[in-house]
Write a structure and sequence with these properties.
The chain is an alpha/beta fold and 351 residues long. The chain is built from 10 helices and 12 strands. Strands 1, 2, 3, 4, 5, 6, 7, 8, 9 and 10 form a 10-stranded mixed beta sheet that branches. The chain has a two-stranded antiparallel sheet with strand order 11-12.
Length: 351
């Protein structure tokens, strides 16, 4: 049989995740193989350094920085692998010329997530997400006709098996193709999350016009993110993957999928659907509104930035479509009229 291994924090889970990552298709890619081997060696060196009781902070910092650089190397290698695989596939039509476009090429390549109840198991941990985190994710994904991404900051409580998303950190880039800019921004975001007494507990990205089901590449990326959540005692702490689809379907509301990747006993990766509970914030803080305004200005300067005055459908422009989606995630003590006015000021657009 090929049951799903759902035991978080167990060494067997860690071994199965590693086995899935080191499957033939990835091993054939030397950059990934070498980066994973180097990462394992660095993690062992950090563990031995901590176990020695040494107060040598400089060595600790050097090892941790080297480990982070290996993580970036793995992400680069995965991106290169995806490009190589895409080059061997027939060219697909360009999508999302406008935000109202309905074309969804390669929809058939997306993979359904499996509910834990279908395989006779309970979800291994409970997920809580703040309403402002949901709001900022959805807003970010409305800003571009291309995929966007960001990180989730929060807390993991292994005693209660609860994962709490407290804040969202968008990767808003002037040039998404500039790898140096991407790396610098990722480093800054990780530092900011640590400064706010949180840890990186997940990531999100958009599928602008297609389903929020993960692609094979998304599953590989999620597996790598989960690999990075390994603690020094060998446990695998949870890592949440979120996909937001803002411009698919007839409803103004964005579609969203939360998932993790588990593995069958024979090492096959399976995307698993995760349920969550919203924790409502009291207000949209001035800091959050300022961040959203800065993001709007940044994407407005890009060719792929969404134009909010363009028609979407059903007598709605994209601004109204977006506000209808975001209203479902706003604090309950803010009226609809107040929220629409706040959003008008943020995007500096009239209907």
């Amino acid at each position: 049989s090929s049951g799903i291994n759902a035991e978080y924090g167990a060494s067997s889970s860690h071994q199965q995740i590693e086995a899935a990552l080191l499957q033939k298709s990835l091993l054939e890619h030397s950059m990934i193989q070498n980066a994973l081997l180097n990462q394992a060696a660095l993690e062992k060196a950090i563990q031995e350094h901590n176990a020695s009781g040494s107060n040598d902070k400089m060595t600790q910092m050097i090892l941790e920085q080297a480990l982070f650089q290996q993580a970036n190397m793995i992400q680069l290698a995965i991106a290169q692998l995806a490009e190589e695989q895409a080059a061997r596939q027939p060219k697909e039509p360009e999508v999302m010329k406008e935000a109202r476009q309905d074309a969804v090429p390669a929809e058939s390549s997306l993979i359904d997530c499996v509910k834990f109840s279908v395989v006779g198991q309970k979800q291994p941990y409970t997920v809580f997400i703040s309403s402002n985190s949901l709001l900022l994710m959805d807003y970010h994904c409305h800003l571009s006709t291309e995929e966007v991404y960001g990180y989730l900051g929060g807390k993991w409580d292994p005693s209660k098996l609860t994962l709490q998303v407290q804040s969202v950190f968008p990767c808003s880039l002037k040039n998404s193709q500039d790898q140096n800019e991407c790396t610098v921004l990722q480093n800054k975001i990780r530092e900011l999350i640590t400064q706010q007494d949180m840890t990186v507990i997940g990531w999100y990205h958009s599928h602008p016009t297609s389903s929020p089901r993960p692609s094979q590449h998304d599953i590989v990326c999620q597996s790598v993110h989960q690999q990075h959540m390994r603690s020094l005692d060998g446990r695998i702490d949870p890592c949440l993957g979120v996909i937001v689809s803002p411009f698919r379907g007839q409803s103004p509301a964005s579609e969203m999928q939360l998932f993790c990747v588990m593995h069958t006993n024979d090492g096959r990766p399976v995307p698993m659907h995760l349920e969550y509970t919203c924790v409502w914030d009291n207000t949209i803080s001035p800091a959050l509104a300022t961040e959203m305004r800065a993001m709007s200005l940044l994407y407005a300067q890009q060719k792929t930035g969404v134009r909010f005055d363009q028609h979407w459908r059903n007598n709605m422009n994209i601004f109204r479509k977006m506000t209808e989606s975001l209203k479902q995630k706003t604090p309950k003590d803010i009226s609809e009229e107040q929220f629409v006015e706040v959003m008008r000021q943020i995007v500096a657009k009239e209907e």
